[in-house]
Amino acid sequence: MLDFTALPALTHGTLLRTPPRPAPVHQLLLDSRRIGQATGSVFFALRGPQHNGHVYMPELYARGVRLFVVDRAAEIPGGLLAYPEAGILLVDDALDALQTVAAAHRRRFRVPVLGVTGSNGKTIVKEWLAQLLAPDELICKSPRSYNSQVGVPLSVWELNATHTLGIFEAGISQRHEMARLARIMQPTLGLFTNIGTAHDAGFTNHREKVEEKMQLFLDVDTLFYCLDHELIHAAAQQHLPEHRTFTWSRLHPHLAHVAVTVAESSGDRMVARVSLARPLPQEHTFTLPFADEPSVENALHALAVLLWRQVPAAEIQHRLDRLQPVAMRLEMKQALNDCYVLDDTYNNDLAGLNLALDVLARQPRRGRRTLILSDVLESGLAGAELYARVAAQLATHGVERLVGVGLEIKHHQALFQQVEATFYNTTDDFLRQFRPDAFHQETILVKGARRFGFERIVTAFQRQIHGTVLEVDLEALAQNLNFYRSRIQPGTRLMVMVKAFAYGSGSYEVANLLEFHRADYLAVAYTDEGVSLRQHGISLPIMVMNPSPDAFQVLRQYHLEPEIYSFERLHDYLTAARQQPLPAIHLKLDTGMRRLGFSETDLPELCALLRDNAAHLRVASALTHLAGADEEQHNSFSEQQLAAFQRMTPQLEEALGYSILKHALNSAGILRFPEAHMDMVRLGIGLYGVEATGREQDALRPVSTLRTTISQVKTLPPGETVGYSRRGQAVEYERRIATLAIGYADGYDRRFGNGAGEVVVRGQRAPIIGNVCMDMCMVDVTHISAARAGDVAEIFGPQLPLPELASRIGTIPYELLTNVSERVKRVFFTE
Ligand SMILES: *Cc1c(COP(=O)(O)O)cnc(C)c1O
């Protein structure tokens, strides 16, 4: 085990503080929110455009972390004296040091490592190869898609002496990054999946991108690739002699090691005929359990590796039959008795368990955190040590209840005495004894190795849910947040509007994510929205825009900060504040919206009141709202508003005798008036994936997808009408009509009726026919012959963008989002 005192020589760093005792390095820690075990963790204080790791040192130290790698001595909060028990290493660049440490770890193990890169399919190819080679090897692989400049070091760090093969993926977005990843990973084998348009921005052309990716493979003994990608083939020929490549092809069978011809392809499988010239001429036929092109290409890459290893054909087929689609994201599902289930039923190794527990720990508290866990496989550790580590992870992640399934975990049940635990021999045993009422208001992580078939457990937990679902992609939300963050100065604060059920997306899930990503403030419209966030454990400052005057005590109790917009409200608040201290307020200034707020002519009176009551009242901020921030035509009006605001606020500050936060801009304003960000901006619709100015929509990812299912498909003879009032007009030909399980009570606007709206079924648009009913509506699917009951219909989402849909009925995306009724179940996705 590497000791901390070996790091200075390795990284050319200087020990600012020598650890008082030997300090073996067990974990590399980059994120203060993800402390597993503090002892033996080394924190690398990385920095990014919006982020400086040094800031978290006091918090980490308080939580027991004792080893730090920093690159700015002057930025250590409190100076060295604040960390008497610590070891602190100063290096030139903390990221570089992290990579050097990982590279040194990698060098200790003389095992083959397969590096996977390419534009698409990296994670799937890696996961499939791990599945297909599992019978022969003990594999260490990157968790999920840990393939970046920090992901690769963390992946490689997981290697230990028991592994016989490493499979790691590498992803880059700029030039010169791949050489760094190659230095860490030191691959002996390589697989180049393909080249496409992903991450094009950092490169001048595809050739340059291929050349950059090739840097991973310069020292490999064998590179696997598909010869049909011409640029990849050219680059491989340039850098590697023929005998260090192993190729497959569908277009040039005589040039490749493996020639593939498609014999037959149907909906869900493909039969491939494969011939090899070497070592002996041979022909085989394999059935791949997929037929879509990306899956087929990924599977053929994996197949090439197996053929190269000379795994017998019958055995290859046997393994292919058990190949599973890879779940790329953790799904959060609403379940019975107010529980939520985090579905991670695909694999179960230690690194993956740790990641999934991180996600569990980040969920808002709704009662207990529960884990349903199968035997942990492929760890290379003896049972006692393995389950002791699992038990430690449960403790650090606040798991209170464990259901263990499998003989091994049951055998080690004595290690789990700190949680409420029950054990079963098999999944069937669990299901036989399953009593729904034994789970109540819990967040349940279901994590099992594939062969335990835990998807059956998830199904058992899922309430019979209404066919209409709003999917909220929390990962997209986080990306949109980062996009707006990249547009504001590091010192500008970010308030996020989570009013109206977070624009329909689900208040506490969104608020929880925002808290995790360190937003500065939240804002809601009404007091009870704020109370509900507090009851779900949200601790960020919250502004309430329209507090009810009779509930000031509630504001106090839940520490909610009211917006005050009139003298009447101010007097009420002051009266209450004289009895008992109340939270700070936000002053709303009306500069032209003419809705709520103090006008410029109110200022003298307002200032006098503030001055006289300085002892009872604290003002946190002053704000105004632009009437036309999103449109060019209102620019001069917006500028007048901003100028008025800038005239008014100094007077307030003068009266108060201290400075307050000043903020004016919503999502559109953030992008259009960068010079007016002031102390804080208020992000709303942009977070939810709609770019209100319409100019930078491509920079955002859609967050919400509203989808429903087809309940029935009918064939209508010519001349028949559809629905209420016979509004679905008769036509001359035979039609197929699908009835969808969504209506205006779900928030699907009646104005979409009679052809105004469309939905997407099997990738094609289908127009609404007849009137939208309360719980249902009908679409014409005559041209979509495959449409049948049970199919999903997208109402809005990636295939049917909200702005388009809104304009069809003359409204704005805000209305469509917030109209989705609360009876529609929200399903949340995270990475
Ligand atoms: C809703 C709201 C915002 C956010 O507006 P978006 O257009 O959704 O970005 C900002 N400020 C105030 C006062 C709001 O009410």
UniProtKB/TrEMBL annotation:
Residues 703-829 form the Alanine racemase C-terminal domain. Keywords: Isomerase, Ligase, Pyridoxal phosphate. Pathway: Amino-acid biosynthesis; D-alanine biosynthesis; D-alanine from L-alanine: step 1/1. The active site is at K499, Y724. Its cofactor is pyridoxal 5'-phosphate. Its EC number is 5.1.1.1. The modification N6-(pyridoxal phosphate)lysine is found at K499. Belongs to the alanine racemase family. Catalyzes the interconversion of L-alanine and D-alanine. May also act on other amino acids. PANTHER family: ALANINE RACEMASE, ALANINE RACEMASE, CATABOLIC-RELATED. This is Alanine racemase. It comes from Hymenobacter telluris.
